[in-house]
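Lab meeting prep.
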Amino acid sequence: MKLNCKPGDLARVIRDDVGIDEQWPGVLFRVHSAGFIVRCRALTVIQGYPAWELEQPVEARSSTPSGFSGVATVYAIADELLRPLPGLGELAGDDETIAWVGKPVQADVPEVISA
């Protein structure tokens, strides 16, 4: 099985998710999360499909076809809804400035003797 993301990837959510909340059996919810940027932490399975636990949960607006709306806390997102941001996944934990200028190197500085 080919996955879109791997652990540590920063990824963009490409479309909203639709699902059923365990607290409301039979009620279909749309979670408006398209455009969010998330970091994939660990692979899991949701309703038989590969998904990524998120490094930090995100709050997203949710709604039903009948017009009910609220806020959903999203802890995991299906892999099929994610696209990795190129070149950023391997920087897990690094300051993004390091991506632009590179990691610092040790410089040889001559000792200064004052008179």
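Slide two material, second protein:
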Amino acid sequence: MLNAVHPLWQAIEFGMKKVPDHVLGLVGYVDARNALARAHSFEQLALFRRHLAPSIRIASPVIRALCQTDLNLSSALNWMQPPVARPKPKPWWPAPPLDGGRAGPDEHPRAFRLRHRTLGVIERWPTDPRGRLGIRLRSGCLDAEVSIGASVLWTAGPIAHLLLADSVPATVAAAMPGRSVEALVSHPLLAGGYEMTAVEQLDHGWTEITFSTGTVGCQVSVVHGQLTAQLDTGGEQLPLDLK
């Protein structure tokens, strides 16, 4: 049966143009090759999702809070793609922070992309008026990186970091460890009674707040080829050893 979608097939079907036989053969070859490539891509994605679902065990509670506002976790996970072999980054490319390294609001967007290109999803770019939003999978835990106004919040398993776009007096910073992060910053994403472990003054008037969040359970399954995620709403689980 002729493929009426292809312009050349349409031309033949309606007698609008005489197409040489060698062109017909080339078009048929290209159509067959594209069909095989699509089938391979679908099979690869299906296999990737079957392996991805059981590998996601826990998530940062920040992701649970995001799901109550502007994140559809199931939809985001379905945008994850199988890792592909990539050329080694050039020496002048900005390296992404490792495992909770600093993510500055003034960094190049490429660094944000590099952090989420493997087992990650970018919901919003740093240039978005609403601020950045990305999630990524590491060691079975879903982590988040999100803007809070001019500040940036990112998680690494049971630990979270807030790069605060303001300075904190040294005497106040020294008294903060052991207290709730809400003693310094009030925001729905931080409303969990999370205990600060460090408050560090940085250059250019910035402050990095490190606090413990624990983790919550996360069950992911494949239903009709699509990933479906559900986060526990009960108490937090024991922190995951990420070493």
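Talking points for slide two:
The first strand starts at residue 58 and ends at 59.
Residues 37 and 100 are 37 Å apart (CA to CA).
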